[in-house]
Amino acid sequence: MAEADIVADYELDVKGECCPYPLVRTKKKVDSLEPGEILRIVADDAVAPQNIDQWSKKSGNKLLSVEEKDGEYIIYVEKT
User: Cα torsion at 30, 68, 58, 62 (round to 10°)?
Assistant: First the structure.
């Protein structure tokens, strides 16, 4: 799914934060969402997309998209 097609309900900016904080903050925010709501995460830690992908698979949430642009990662997660 392309980023332009996704409408996020919330945004989490974790730029400047290193592992594990982008994942910890993402998990905490997703836990507060209602099923079907989408979180847009903006990160600049190169391992954040991989960590969030692995966590989403384990937690049952859905990783919708990861895009890298100018050293920033835009990650979309849907609460299931």
Answer: 60
Q: Which helix (H) or strand (E) holds 69?
A: strand 62-69
Which CATH number does the domain housing residue 43 bear? 3.30.110.40
- Take residue 60 and report the two structure tokens written for it: 């049952």
* Residues spanned by the domain of 62: 3-78
* DSSP letter assigned to residue 48: H
Give phi and psi for 47, each to the nearest 5: -90, -10
Amino acid letter, residue 47? V
pLDDT in tens, 14-67: 999 998 999 999 999 999 999 999 999 999 999 999 999 999 999 999 999 999
Catalytic sites, residue numbers: 19
